[in-house]
Structures are given as C-alpha cells and as structure tokens.
Amino acid sequence: LAKTTQPISMDSYEGQEVNITCSHNNIATNDYITWYQQFPSQGPRFIIQGYKTKVTNEVASLFIPADRKSSTLSLPRVSLSDTAVYYCLVGSNTGGFKTIFGAGTRLFVKA
Amino acid sequence: GAVVSQHPSRVICKSGTSVKIECRSLDFQATTMFWYRQFPKQSLMLMATSNEGSKATYEQGVEKDKFLINHASLTLSTLTVTSAHPEDSSFYICSASPPARTDTQYFGPGTRLTVL
After folding, report:
1. Closest by Cα among B45, B112, B115, B110 to B86
2. Which of B14, B31, B56, B64 has the lowest tally of Cβ within 10 angstroms?
3. What is the Cα–Cα distance from A34 to A73, expressed in whole angstroms?
4. How far apart are CA A28 and CA A24, in angstroms?
C-alpha cells in the first residue's frame, strides 16, 4: 500500500491560493490519487481525483508530475469555509484496494 | 454526485447494550462498502471492508465478534457494535464504492456513538 505524507497543518488568508503537497514515493502503476476534504463531525467529501498531469474541476486543481511520486492540490482563492482537514489517498481497483488514511493536512483560513 | 447516508447520526447508549448503524448508498449500487472509526483530532482508521453477499474483511486489531458487519444488499451495509463500552465511543463513518471503482469512495455523514 502506498503511504502518503502531507504537512500536518497550513495557514492561509482569505482570497489566497493554497497549495497542499502530498508525497507518495511508492505509488503503484495502477494507483490513482484522490483528495478528500473533511469538516469536524462530518464524513470526508470527495474533491478531486487524477492519475497524471493536471486535473481541474469547479473547486480545485490537481497537479501530478511525471514520476507521480507526489501531487499538489491547489485551492484557488480560499474562503473561511475552506478551513478543514484535507487528505490525499492513493489506490486502485486492482489487488484488493484498501484505503489507508494518513494524518491529513489541517488548513486554517484566516480573515 | 453519489450520495451515501447513515442512520442514526447520533446515538447514546448504556454500557453493555448493542447498537446498529446503517449505511445506505442512495443513488448507486455499492458492491463494496468500508467502515471507519475516527477519534477526536485523529485520522480515519479503516475497520473493515464489506462486500455484498460475503463476509467482511476486518483489519488487524478489530474484533469481528464485537463489530458485526452485514452487507445483505447492494445498497445497505450495517455495523453492529455489540456489548458496547465507553471506549467504543467514537465517530463511525462508512463509505461506498460503485462497482469496479473501489478507487473512488463516497462517504456517509458519520454516526457519533457515545457509550455511557
């Protein structure tokens, strides 16, 4: 199982762009990279998923370099409501996929 | 997007009683469901993987006789905490994956269990 490493916490201000990087050095060929957001006392919410290069949706972008050993979640113009814990996970459909959550990154957005 | 519900959202029970938590996928069929436990300020810990029509696979250190999991249909999985004790108090979260897409999980809102 690919282990992930993220910064424990980050601070930002409203309106700024926030980039959270995740390391996954032993990612497997079939693994996808998925990011989730979690608010206190709620289940995680899917943000974005990618395999390589760049993926963008209405809430975030995901940048994955060619070696795929890391990925960066980019949140444009954060607001106070983006204060949450962000988790990056890697896994695939093959080989009995199992999700192991790392510690996640606690993002604090200040006014 | 895919919706997963949990019931109840919050439960308080006395020590020694059993509590059942339901997890439902509302708009897709889920061949695989996962159960997690989360303590305050900690990450999610996978307890077991539940496949429809077969026995659940429990993670190391999780007592299968204490945490009974049933996945009787493609839209429903249940977790029963038997003979609950105060140390079982936690936030329990389920997730569900569409067929052949276990790399994508949709999470329920969680159930807060408090054992007195």
Report:
1. B115
2. B14
3. 10
4. 9
CA distance A49 to A109: 23
Name the residue among A32, A93, A101 with its Cβ closest to that of B100.
Answer: A93
The answer to whether the Cβ–Cβ distance between A34 and B104 falls below 8 Å is yes
Residue B69 CA to residue B77 CA, distance in Å, equals 7
CB atoms within 10 A of CB A50: 20
Q: Is the pLDDT of residue A97 over 90?
A: no
* Residue B88, helix vs strand vs coil: helix
Confidence of residue B104 (pLDDT cuts 50, 70, 90): confident
Q: Give the whole-angstrom CA distance, residue B115 versus residue B5.
A: 22
Q: Percentage of chain A surpassing pLDDT 90?
A: 77
> Which residues in chain A have their CB less than 8 angstroms from residue B50's CB?
none
- All residues of chain B having their beta carbon less than 8 Å from the beta carbon of residue A43 are 4, 6, 93-95, 107-110
**Are A49 and B46 an interchain contact pair (Cβ–Cβ within 8 Å)?**
no
Q: How many angstroms separate the CA atoms of A100 and A98, rounded? A: 6
Cα–Cα dist B63/B72, whole Å: 20
Question: What does the mean pLDDT of chain A come to?
Answer: 91
DSSP 8-state symbol, B60: T
